[in-house]
Amino acid sequence: MSAPHDNRRQPSAPLPDFCSLPVLFALLVVGALTVTLMWLAPGNDGDLRDYSIAVLFTSWLSVLLTVALCKLRPWMQRLPGLWPYAAVWLLLVTTVGASAGMLGWIDHNLSAGLSPASRFGFVRDCMLATGLLGAGLLRYFYVVAQWQVRVAAAAQAQVAALQARIRPHFLFNSMNAVAALIRVDPDAAERTVENLSELFRAALGSDQTSLGTLGEEWALVDRYLDIEALRLGDRLRVERDIDVPTDLPLPRLLLQPLVENAIRHGVQPLREGGSIRLEGRRVPGGVEIVVDNPVADLPATPGNGHGLRNVRERVRFHFGERASVDASVREGRFVVKVFLPEAARARTDRR
Predict the structure, then answer these.
(1) In angstroms, rounded to a whole number, what is the distance separating the alpha carbons of residues 288 and 117?
(2) Long-range Cβ contact pairs of 178-182 (< 8 A, separation 24 or more)
(3) 3-state secondary structure of 69
(4) Does residue 224 contact residue 253 with C-beta atoms inside 8 Å?
(5) pTM of the model
(6) Is the CA virtual torsion 13, 18, 21, 24 positive or negative?
(7) How far apart are CA 124 and CA 130, in angstroms?
(8) Mean pLDDT over the full length of the chain
(9) Which of 312, 303, 300 shows the shortest CA–CA distance to 254?
(10) How far apart are CA 347 and CA 351, in angstroms?
């Protein structure tokens, strides 16, 4: 009996985003450089008119190819293995060949002298140059795509490792709060356990890369603040100024570590307590979320910075390099600002 073979489809190689300006810019630059090198090559008569026409032709082709690749990318990406890149290469060669043939036919009928006398040779040379340059350019795109996949995998692994290091700290602090309430206020302890169950469901979930919403995140923060309010009483005061959509996509349990740090290092060390400000507002280019707390004169409970580092890595992982998490001391308060670019879409799948 023959061994069963694997019928699973081979995953496709990721294609670059052909709808982006960098891809169009790369095609324009490659086309212009190719025409310039051919114009400067020995034996060329150096006719500026022919050079200008060639640059105009390659620029028009670059725009045409970018539009075609942008529209056909979803279909080509569904092909298995390296076939997406083969499809892109065939599209480049056939489009350039058809465009060169059409230009030669129009020029021949109008007798404008824009193309060589041999239409077949003109089409052949254009397709040959496109095939060679396209292969090199696609190789570059393929290497960059593979590098981005590896970087994304490394970032996801780092985020998972940081999240795993946060969980024990969060668990121990929460259980200590419950233990302190059991004898003093059993009803409050019961409410605290209910709040903890929701917090643990988010903190100990199996999929840490999944997304929730800002409204769900604020609900988790409120549960955590209820727990701390029972422990700190009037020493903890919370001010809110939220003016952002509650359906804004947000990684789960992103803001809770910031609020926990604000209480642990800002409010708790102060005998009179202090206020935590939670703000959310629209800013040019995106949305900004702010968590700030008072700075204690006495040294706070020592920390290792995992909470802030975790938030910074997760924001960068989900929203890209334009997103940022800034922390600074201003007028006696420790301020953390999370900027989420409006154009960025949170990513659940980095492939």
Answers:
(1) 62
(2) 180/231, 181/230, 181/231
(3) helix
(4) no
(5) 0.53
(6) positive
(7) 10
(8) 76
(9) 312
(10) 10
Q: Which two tokens stand for residue 123?
A: 């089409």
Q: Does residue 252 contact residue 211 with C-beta atoms inside 8 Å?
A: yes
Q: Among residues 280, 282, 263, which one has the least CA distance to residue 218? A: 280
The three-state secondary structure class of 328 is strand
The answer to whether the CB of 15 falls within 8 A of the CB of 78 is: no
Can you tell me whether residue 11 is helix, strand or coil?
coil
Tokens 């590098």 belong to residue = 147
Q: Are 308 and 327 in contact (CB under 8 A)?
A: yes
**Termini Cα distance of the chain:** 38
User: Is the CB of residue 203 less than 8 Å from the CB of residue 251?
Assistant: no
Alpha carbon 44 to chain centroid, angstroms: 47
Hey, how many other C-beta atoms are within 10 angstroms of the C-beta on 1? 3
CA dihedral 87, 89, 93, 94 (to 10 degrees): 10
Least confident span in 64-68, 134-138, 182-186: 182-186
Cα(348)–Cα(351) distance, integer angstroms: 9
CA quadruple 163, 166, 167, 168: dihedral sign: positive
